[in-house]
Write a structure and sequence with these properties.
- By secondary structure, the chain is an all-alpha fold.
- It has one domain.
- 79% of the residues lie in helices and 0% in strands.
- It is built from seven helices and no strands.
- It has helices at 3-28, 30-35, 40-47, 52-74, 84-108, 112-118, 121-148.
- It starts with a helix and ends in a 7-residue tail after the last helix.
């Protein structure tokens, strides 16, 4: 297995873990929303029994699960998914943007939510570092997919 494939497997496993963590946040309730940086507003809505936090969090979990499938597809663990190269590139870009700009955004933007995250700077730094690692895994995998895939082969 090539190093790019191994990195995609690592990225896929970590992303799948993040998807499961988001499901755990729904189950864990308001305290979990607070701990994992969703903000006091989301935690309060969850405490009141609103479905909105669960729907938003479930949507994030589903998106992360799809991203994990794309990583596994890029590594050749599962069948080739449509738009594989483009998807891996975009996923890498999102992870890298979150990793590189998450902390500066929290430090520079002045609103209720970023002020809450500023109080959890350790969480922001750790989650940003994780996103950078994931972004690099997906970026290397995407580069390999673009390099090795035949130009005329449909995705």
């Amino acid at each position: 297995m090539r190093i790019a494939d191994r990195l995609l497997v690592v990225g896929g496993v970590l992303t799948a873990g993040a998807a499961l963590l988001h499901v755990g946040i729904i189950i864990g309730g308001p305290d979990w929303y607070r701990f994992f940086g969703a903000g006091e507003r989301m935690a309060r809505m969850a405490a009141r029994g609103s479905m909105q936090p669960a729907l938003v969090t479930a949507s994030i979990a589903a998106l992360l699960a799809v991203w994990a499938l794309y990583a596994f597809s890029g590594a050749g663990v599962i069948r080739r998914l449509p738009f594989l190269r483009l998807a891996l590139t975009l996923i890498a870009a999102v992870y890298l943007a979150r990793g590189l700009f998450g902390v500066p955004a929290v430090m520079l933007v002045d609103d209720v939510y970023t002020n809450q995250l500023r109080a959890k700077l350790t969480f922001m730094v750790v989650s940003s570092a994780i996103c950078i690692v994931l972004g690099v895994c997906y970026a290397i995998g995407a580069a390999q997919a673009w390099k090795t895939a035949p130009a005329l082969r449909p995705e």
